[in-house]
UniProtKB/TrEMBL annotation:
Residues 20-198 form the Guanylate kinase-like domain. It comes from the Bacteria. PROSITE patterns: GUANYLATE_KINASE_1 (PS00856), GUANYLATE_KINASE_2 (PS50052). It is found in: Cytoplasm. This is Guanylate kinase. The gene is gmk. It catalyses: GMP + ATP = GDP + ADP. Pfam families: Guanylate_kin (PF00625). GO terms for molecular function: GMP kinase activity. It comes from Nostoc paludosum FACHB-159.
Length: 199
């Protein structure tokens, strides 16, 4: 049986200096969130990266339990009412969610916990954890975003179209978040994220 912990509020976090903090990295698909995240984790292995649950099929090279926990739609839909997700959303035809218990345990043990998630989930986290640091990653241009999604070579034409369509809406929401960083020069963007998290 998995124990469901209460969601931490801003007040709880402020009153308990030993508690960790959530950091949310969001932005359109293909902007480079995952690549930036991996580099950030190499520089700072003390960060805890939350492995998400998804109903998407694994891409070549993706490992269950490391890239994602890959589960069926039926299983995901069972887990939602059981309160297993801190946030969840449907994105480009698949479900994605953040495992609640693992993340709350890490925060409670004082860790900085990093989530790399899409817009709707990031909004849910902002509502539940007002003290979370939220960072929106922007592409230098829409054309460059499309180039990056295509150069990754891992999505069907249909998936690319859905992701680009969604990206137009997501980019409009950038101002909702604490910090906006343009991922043009990779190292500059990485340094900017590092400064936002540790500065
Ligand atoms: N600053 C950059 N300049 C050029 N290419 C980049 C830059 N940052 C990332 N990329 C490349 O863009 C592609 C997409 O990056 P990545 O998969 O990290 O995006 P993402 O935002 O995590 O996408 P998704 O949300 O769909 O998982 C990759 O091929 C990556 O190497
Ligand atoms: N709301 C959530 N979004 C998530 C989560 N894990 C990943 N994502 C986002 O989904 C899209 C698509 O990812 P891909 O791996 O299929 O390219 C991307 O924006 C991810 O950041 C999650 O747990 N919750």
């Amino acid at each position: 049986m998995i124990r469901v912990l209460p969601i931490q509020s801003r007040a709880t976090t402020k009153e308990s200096p030993n508690l960790g903090r959530l950091i949310v990295l969001t932005g359109p698909s293909g902007v480079g969130k995952g690549t930036l995240m991996r580099s950030l984790l190499q520089r700072h292995p003390e960060l805890y990266y939350s492995v998400s649950v998804t109903t998407r099929s694994p891409r070549p090279g993706e490992i269950d339990g490391k890239s994602y926990y890959f589960i069926s739609r039926t299983k995901f839909e069972q887990l939602i009412p059981e309160g297993e997700f801190l946030e969840w959303a449907e994105f480009a035809g698949n479900y994605y969610g953040t495992p609640r218990e693992a993340v709350l345990n890490q925060i409670n043990s004082g860790k900085l916990v990093v989530l790399e998630i899409e817009l709707e989930g990031a909004r849910q986290i902002r509502a539940s954890f007002p003290s979370a640091l939220s960072i929106f990653i922007l592409p230098p241009s829409f054309e460059e975003l499309e180039k990056r999604i295509r150069s990754r070579g891992q999505d069907s034409e249909d998936a690319i179209a859905r992701r680009l369509h969604r990206a137009q809406e997501e980019i409009k929401a950038a101002d909702e978040f604490d910090i906006q960083i343009v991922n043009d020069d990779f190292k500059t963007a990485l340094n900017d994220i590092e400064a936002a998290v540790f500065g």
